[in-house]
Specification:
Layout (H helix, E strand, L loop, with lengths): L6 E2 L2 E2 L12 H11 L5 H5 L20 H10 L3 E2 L8 E2 L1 H11 L5 H22 L4
Antiparallel strand pairs: 1-2, 3-4
Length: 133
Amino acid sequence: MRPVPWIGRSGVQGLQRDARGLPHKKLKDIGRAIYEKPPDAKKLAVWGLKPSDYPDKIVEIWPEHEDSYRSFVAVSTQWRVGGMGGAPGLDYQAVFATLASLHRNKTEAERDAIFAELQVIERAALDEMNRKE
């Protein structure tokens, strides 16, 4: 059995990196966009603006990230809830079961790559959910 990619101090291990050595920004954009809070109408009103003045944010999903995106959406109801109310992360038992079901035609290495990308999306989603105004 091969080791599963994990999140360490330098990010998700085993994930293909961009030219600067960082995980793909597009994956982070996906996670942030799903949980992004809309602009606060009261704060905007101070400046004479309305939420409708801001267009909907569109995030392009590249073909190579489609499996990761679909997998994240499929497990997006599987957040673990911590004792203090926040979500510390996804329930990986449910994630692995979903990956095995959704991607049964893929190799173990391909599923590992999808899982690593899903972890990047998860981290960005958690950052967005826990972002303070």
